Amino acid sequence: MDINKENLRAVTQGYTTVFNNAFSAAAALYGRVAMEVPSNSASNTYGWLGKTTRFRKWLGDRVVQNLKTHQYTILNEKFEDTVAVGKDDIEDDTYGTYRPMFEMLGHDAAMHPDELVFDLMKNGFDSTCYDGQYFFDTDHPVIGNDGQEVSVSNFQDGAGDAWFLLDVSKPIRPFIFQKRRDYNFVAKDNPEDDNVFWKDEFVYGVDARVAAGYALWQLAFGSKAALDNTNYQAARAAMMSVKGDNGKPLGVRPNLLVVPPSLEAAAKEILEAERKANGATNTERNTAELLVVPYLA
Fold first, then answer.
1. Are 109 and 81 within 8 A, CB to CB?
2. Residue 228, number of CB atoms within 10 A of its CB
3. Sign of the alpha-carbon torsion through 84, 87, 88, 94
4. From CA 151, how far away is CA 263, in angstroms rounded?
5. Angle ∠(206,208,212) on CA atoms, nearest 5
6. Alpha-carbon distance 156 to 175, whole Å?
7. Alpha-helical regions (H) of the chain
């Protein structure tokens, strides 16, 4: 193949198509647990996190509820993934052998949000959220009916592999995936580019400005205790009992059990078996969907 702009444009178009097809075909999981939020600046500040109100019977004048403001900010970060194709490979018409590399580039770009969001989940035991506490913690501060602060837990201690119970039934999800600039495929394929002159190769890459962060801890429960019916039932009960400020019931309905591959069998035993080991009816059966996430390994 002659190395000219027209032929190189056709090569790039082919690589772009391969990338886009792989990007579209990838089965990312982050949307099950995170809400996607657009960003128009270097960061987003989520002042509404933690604000809950409560309806009251209207007697006399309205009562303005004073809500605590939290300044939780998520900074956008830049990410890139870059590959190169030798000039000789294009000149010798062997550039098609690079197709799998561009397929993986598209797949990896689509799955990158999974890496960010589930890494955040895994590290939620020692990373802070909007109230200054660890996302999974025993003492989240909440204002009770009497106006006094009480501590609320969404954490179950233990020494095993972590598992997570979430409420993803609401418009707000437990986690945030923030997007400033979407994943974009670019090419340095001009024969006069420096990369061609100095290294005799054409360069292709993907970049994005994105970030992940914590939303409402009330919609998530993290446990390092053994994944069995007793601990699972305790986690469900704790979540459904959570109240917001002023004693407002939040109506939390845990419906997604998220586990690493090591706990898949134990999770299926809880959510799918008709009977427990002792022969009793498994009352936890079908109480949540199961999501097995390799990134939690």
1. yes
2. 15
3. positive
4. 30
5. 135
6. 19
7. 5-25, 87-91, 99-122, 194-199, 229-240, 264-272
Please write the tens of the pLDDT for every residue from 148-190: 889 999 999 999 999 999 999 999 999 999 999 999 999 999 8
Bridge partner residues of 79 (DSSP): 208
Hey, is 163 helix, strand or coil? strand
- For residue 178, what pLDDT is reported? 97
164 touches 222 (CB < 8 A): yes
Query: Looking at residues 222-251, what average pLDDT do you find?
Result: 93
Q: What is the pLDDT of residue 48?
A: 80
Amino acid type, 78:
K
Mean per-residue pLDDT, 71-94: 92
Could you list the beta-strand ranges (E) of 192-282.
201-214, 220-223, 256-259
Indicate the pairing of strand 34-38 with strand 175-188: parallel
Question: 234 φ, ψ to 5°?
Answer: -65, -40
DSSP letter (8 states) at residue 64: -
Beta partners for 187? Answer: 204
State the amino acid at position 113 in one-letter form: P
